[in-house]
Please model this.
Amino acid sequence: MVSLFKKRRLSFFTVCMMLVQSLLLALPAFGASNPPQTDTIKVMTYNMSVSTALPEIAGVLRQSGADVIGLQRVDNHYSSRSEFKDQAKELADLLGMYYAYGANLDSPSDVPGEPNKQYGNAILSKYPILSSQNRLLTKGREQRGLLSAEIDWNGKRFWFHNTHLAGISAETVIQIPEILQTVSGKTGYSAFVGSLNHLPGAPELAPLDNSFYDVRTGRLGGETTPSANPTSRTDYIYADRQLEVVSSEVIPYAKTTSRPFVAELKVADPGNTVRSLSFPNAPEFVEIGTSYHPLGLVVHHADRSTTPLTAGPVYTSSKPEVAVVNEEGAVRGISPGTAIIQAVYQGKIAEVRVTVVQRIPGSNSAAAQILVNGQPLANFDPAQRDYEASLPADTTAVPQVTATAQDPYASVTVTQAAGLPGLATVKVTAENGKTSSTYTVRLKRNLPGDDSVLPLRVMSYNIHHAVNNANVLDLPAIAQEIRSQNVDVVGLQEVDKYYSSRSDMKDQAKLLAEELGMYYAYGANLNRDPANEGDPRREYGTAILSKYPILYAENYFLESYGDEQRGLLEALIDVNGQPVYFYDTHLGLTTDQRQSQAREILAHFSKRTGPKILVGDFNASPASSEIQLLLGNGLTDSFRYMPNVYTFPSSGPTSRIDYIFYSQEIKQYDSYVVQTEASDHIPVVGQYALAKQPAPPADTTPPGEITNLAASVNGSAASVSWTNPADSDHLYSEIYLNGQLQGKTYKQKFQLADLAADTVYQVVVKTVDKAGNRSQGVSLLFTTSTAEAVSHEALVSVIGQLEALGEVKHSLKQQLVNTLETAKHHKDGDRADQAAKHYAKFLNNLTTAADKEISAVAKQLLLELAQTAAPGYTP
Model:
């Protein structure tokens, strides 16, 4: 302080005033430290959409007079979209209110040392916040949470709960019970607010309606979204039954996603159990005439019960010239139009909209029958929505689908299939226009009844590492979905292999193949170090399961521009003697990535001849440029005649990003999706057939041999390379190590791993043609010994291994070993001259007698080893 005086030459009075001002700024504003002493409290919910107009929003909140505010979609140093601000704190400072924040997304900053990036909910309060907690709810597509604050409301304990739900049914039905479990453990008064993304009356919200009561119960209006012209209400304030609603209103602020919604609550009179009124069973339409129709007003009580109210309310009609209402709460139609009937009882209001018509329009939207080319569908049931119609295998003309409705006044619209296999849609709309029923007819062709073709049933399924929509790991459910469709080949995406605890550290492809009795191939696009030394590597990628033998498989990395690595898994499958190339992929998240990856896929396709099938999660819509690129280069989309067949998300699909494409050698008979929530994607299935190929000719001449076979050793691994034969019949190569098949590949190289030290290996590479003929094979010997590792004993061991491989006769082996042993004896006795003499004799034997008994490859190998063991000596 002394230095401050000296630096700024301030008077003692000025310094004192500065200290007082600093203390005042450190305290909450007057509104927070001295809230109004009343038994009413004004609460608000507001989805602020991470808006950056914080001073303007603060003005709206201040003008509303709200005492406690629940905010959704609030950033805390999240990104440039909100200018890296702590939005809750800034609003609290502007309003002079207490605040609590709950982060649902929390990740480290991109800049070291900066605060974490957070996104979630906030609570602002004029009353002191005694405590707060944020409960993370079961995760769906995005993490959601419930922020609760314990507030001192003039000495009364008031719990204020705030959330923001995704509006996905499968998530909501799990998360709301979790919310109620948290809320039920609190004592005192309470309110629950939030952006719930469901409309009033939605069955998903029923548990909330049973525990609290909606402050808009029985009232019309209250729409909050979209803010520019609200037509629906997705924002709610629920009160416990110790509180009464004084008023509620939507604030006309239209610069964010939703409008703020505010309600004034008060402590309920213990002697008055009425909490709200409603017309739950009022008729929507009333005919003009002399008859009165009861509206059915009910009272909602504090104990959650409801009773009919027949006496006491005051009824009014907004348009008596359209409809009148009597003292008993019955309405009569006067002239065509719409009127709002209002009932008032003990200060509570209920409203209902009644439309007066000459004749009440029908509400039946059920179909009476559906016909395909004039033939009724078998076993038609108006309550069933989806049907299939099987057509002869040689059908080419698309059949016409027609339908009739049960109500003659209902309208019927039929959208015909554009081709086969295809989907026709029948929509029946009731006369009142309020209800409609949609039926689908899948038109498929039967497979030929003879054996002229080879049937092939294919599935593509993004299994989301076997985690279902309830966020539960359930690999057996994935196996059951595959089994239930009786598919021959399935391409899987998002498959874990010892990846993490999310999939129980299991090899999912192997387990599925074992469970289903199928062959499999796996392509790891992510390959990471294990969490613990000695554990398997952590892998994530795609897999192919097949009932037919997989001749070979390769996984090709696709350009991913630094983002998550993507790949193309290729398998050559023997379908009863017919080779089929099957491809499985999972493309990137940006258009540029997918376009590049589609071009790479086409480049791989150009190297292969014969039937080809491509499946996968392409993360792109059918109209996208990357999908059109594939379609423009000889591939056909299995669902081209099935618009609006969606695959993602499985809880309520709105888009198609999963595909099965096939080449022109293949004929399609059927395609459909499987409704399941075992993953976040819906599997797609297609029925295809291959033309049977004629039996191979009697000439079984084997294909040409490979050339330039070489091996490069690196520790316990070896890389084998060669040049493929030029003949067109060569299909792939088989690699054998010491007589055991190691693998098959179309490439001209192969990796051998886990080789023993100081050991001779014989590698043989054979070529295989389309008829299954194999060449005799080209052989190569190599050893894992190195110049530093070779010893006298190792050389003796190598000679023995060569004998076992048939490269050295026993008589020569004994001669070589005896000579080496004699050399070693002299060397150990420090008789270098005698040792050198016998080493020279050993090398001589390799160039004379050995010429007749050892292959050139084995001879060269022994010479190299011998010269290493006895440096400086030559034959």
Q: What stands out?
A: The first strand starts at residue 40 and ends at 47.
